[in-house]
Amino acid sequence: MEKTIYVNRPASRTWNRLGVNEAAVRWDTDAETLLSNERFTAVSGKNAPLRIEAADGGAAYGRRVYTVTAEAGAELTVFEVCTAAQPLAAELRLTAAEGAHLRVVQLLNPAQGAVLRHELSAQLAEHAKLDLISLQLGDGAVYADHQISLAGDGAALRADLGYLARRSDTADIDLTVEQLGKSTVSEIHASGALMERAKKVFRGTIDFKRGSAGSVGSENETVLLLGEDAENKTVPVILCAEENVEGSHGATIGELDADTLFYFASRGIDRAAAEAILARAAVERLARMAEDEAFSARALGALAQVLCTKEERE
């Protein structure tokens, strides 16, 4: 039986009236089935790309777990595609040993009306690096929870997150970075577009722990509102228990203004087409950052499907 569960809880709570302290999801925990539990190891040196396809397999409330361990000095790119027509939970667990470099490129793409929950956790040792490119597209609800621990001195994270939501879709994102080691670096960039009645929450938390002296963290988000009923909540947070650190955050939230509409109209482009162009631009750049033809084609195809009209679908 379905019940309400709470996910994407931030590291630090704020006023309950803002509605950002967690996300409420209808889920049947008793019916949840473990569909796969796979483990992969990257050895020292450059490894061949790892490709993960996480689908519901026709089962409602399925769960897939993937564990990736990078040995010292390993280099590995993980391409992860999550698709779901039924409620699906997927989990990617990452461990990077000293000097390892992990690159994760993911597409979270539920079908219309589906719920996709994704959890990513990463533990980075000394001078390990994680580059994360994450695209949230689709016609359903996506709840993405990223928990990154920069445990070793000199560990580094760069995260580029992109999303597009329309109709009454939900995009709920939590990204928490714990900076524990000395001279760690975190850099978070989020961008996306909301159309029609879409709802989005982005919680970005940089947490400087005691002992993280010399560390630097920054986060920035750019949001394009393309629907009068679209709802955006941006929650940047910096927590600090160490003196000698540097943290910054910012957000830019904009709408399609009259001057921009006039520019498009003067070139024979109506409002609907203009919105589609701008929405595409907000996330297309990230799809191409994958530097992989197969993944880029998959992501751009999903983007085109999200943007197409009801008549085009039929």
User: Ranges with pLDDT <50 over ≥5 residues?
Assistant: 310-314
> Could you tell me how far the N terminus lies from the C terminus, measured between alpha carbons in angstroms?
33 Å
Shape: globular
Q: Beta-sheet strand percentage?
A: over 45%
Order of helices and strands: EEEEEEEEEEEEEEEEEEEHHHH
Considering DSSP H and I runs of 4 or more, what fraction of the residues is helical?
10-25%
Radius of gyration: 19 Å
Mean pLDDT: 93
Layout of strands and helices, then pairs:
Layout: E1 3-7, E2 23-27, E3 33-42, E4 45-46, E5 50-55, E6 62-70, E7 74-84, E8 88-96, E9 101-110, E10 115-124, E11 129-136, E12 141-150, E13 156-165, E14 170-179, E15 185-194, E16 199-208, E17 216-225, E18 231-240, E19 246-255, H1 258-265, H2 271-289, H3 293-307, H4 310-313
Structural features, described:
This protein is mainly beta. The chain has 4 helices and 19 strands. Strands 4, 5, 7, 9, 11, 13, 15, 17 and 19 form a 9-stranded parallel sheet that branches. An 8-stranded parallel sheet has the order 3-6-8-10-12-14-16-18, with no helix packed on it. A two-stranded antiparallel ribbon has the order 1-2. α2 packs antiparallel against α3. The longest helix is centred in the last third of the chain and has 19 residues, at 271-289. The chain starts with a strand and ends with a helix. The model is unreliable at 310-314 (pLDDT under 50).
